[in-house]
UniProtKB/TrEMBL annotation:
Family, as annotated: Belongs to the acetolactate synthase small subunit family.
Molecular function in Gene Ontology: acetolactate synthase activity; acetolactate synthase regulator activity
Subunit structure: Dimer of large and small chains.
EC code(s) of this entry: 2.2.1.6
Top-level EC class as recorded in UniProt: transferase
Domain ACT, first and last residues per copy: 4-78
Catalytic activity as recorded in UniProt: 2 pyruvate + H(+) = (2S)-2-acetolactate + CO2
Pathway: Amino-acid biosynthesis; L-isoleucine biosynthesis; L-isoleucine from 2-oxobutanoate: step 1/4; Amino-acid biosynthesis; L-valine biosynthesis; L-valine from pyruvate: step 1/4
Record-given protein name: Acetolactate synthase small subunit
One of the GO biological process terms: isoleucine biosynthetic process
Length: 170
């Protein structure tokens, strides 16, 4: 089963290494990992996409919560918004190919971010399924490079980020 886990952490050296080490020791392959700052100074959020059964993942969550720099762990099983950013460089040899790729770009609401004589770089934001479909549609034209950020997620509705008292104890 695929899980998106958000981990709210204090910005300290080696925190990312400690967190990914927990997953490595459990034999999980991280499908994607994204890290960024939050609206609270000194805190970052790490988004991890992993596959595994619920029981084992629950154990990893408990171990994550034991790390002093970890303030909150959320497994986004509840309704959530998920997004990923993808940059793709596609080969366009002639005018016909360029127009065909432009049709695909418009259908997926992607943006052209670079134009060269024989290639285009397109940017797309969406869930992983949308990005997979976009790449599949472009494949016949010759994908030269792909860079994906990995999934980030946020719970839907009124739920907000609430930090445990653990933060004040640190």
């Amino acid at each position: 089963m695929r899980h998106i886990i958000s981990v709210l952490v204090q910005d300290h050296p080696r925190v990312l290494n400690r967190i990914t080490g927990l997953f490595a020791r459990r034999g999980f392959n991280l499908e994607s990992l994204a890290v960024g700052t939050t609206h609270v100074p000194g805190l970052s959020r790490i988004s991890l996409v992993v596959s595994g059964d619920d029981r084992t993942l629950e154990q990893v969550e408990k171990q994550l919560n034991r790390l002093i720099e970890v303030l909150k762990v959320t497994d986004h099983a509840e309704p959530h918004v998920e997004r990923e950013l993808c940059l793709v460089k596609v080969h366009v040899a002639g005018v016909e190919e360029r127009l065909a790729v432009k049709d695909i770009q418009e259908a997926f609401r992607a943006r052209v971010v670079d134009v060269a004589q024989r290639s285009l770089i397109l940017e797309l934001t969406g869930d992983s399924g949308k990005i997979d479909s976009f790449l599949e549609a472009l494949r016949p034209y010759g994908i030269l490079e792909v860079m994906r950020t990995g999934a980030v997620a946020m719970s839907r509705g009124e739920r907000t980020l609430k930090v445990r008292e653990k933060r004040e104890a640190v």
